[in-house]
Design brief:
globular; 58% helix; 0% strand; mainly alpha
Length: 123
């Protein structure tokens, strides 16, 4: 009987170790941070994600494909491509008539929007 308990304990220990290794070696997809997922995207994927965000959040003021419906909002096609910090600041804090988006968009989403703006509204 002691031998059977020893074998049983060994089997239980082996199963526990293998289960723990499986659970820690392969993280679940839902556990991966959203920023890591966005960082792994190609530039084309980032631009496409930025376009989707633009359509959802920006198009009603800045126009379809950044073609401005008038002169009330900034023409994003003219935004300097080397001024990401200015773009992030404007989106995060708002500027003139534009409200701040810091509570709506994550930093990764703003980066995706920047990729779309930098591409000139082309995807």
């Amino acid at each position: 009987m002691t031998r059977d308990l020893g074998i049983f304990a060994g089997v239980i220990l082996t199963v526990a170790v293998l289960s723990a290794a499986t659970l820690t070696d392969v993280p679940a997809a839902e556990d991966a941070p959203r920023s890591a997922v966005l960082q792994a995207q190609t530039e084309a994927q980032r631009i496409a994600a930025g376009k989707r965000l633009y359509v959802q959040n920006c198009m009603h003021c800045h126009g379809l494909n950044m073609v401005n419906p008038g002169n009330v909002t900034f023409d994003l096609r003219e935004f300097p491509r080397d001024e990401k910090a200015r773009f992030v600041e404007s989106v995060t804090r708002g500027k003139n008539n534009m409200p701040p988006w810091r509570d709506v968009l994550s930093a990764d989403e703003i980066d995706a929007l920047w990729a779309y703006v930098r591409a000139g509204g082309q995807s």
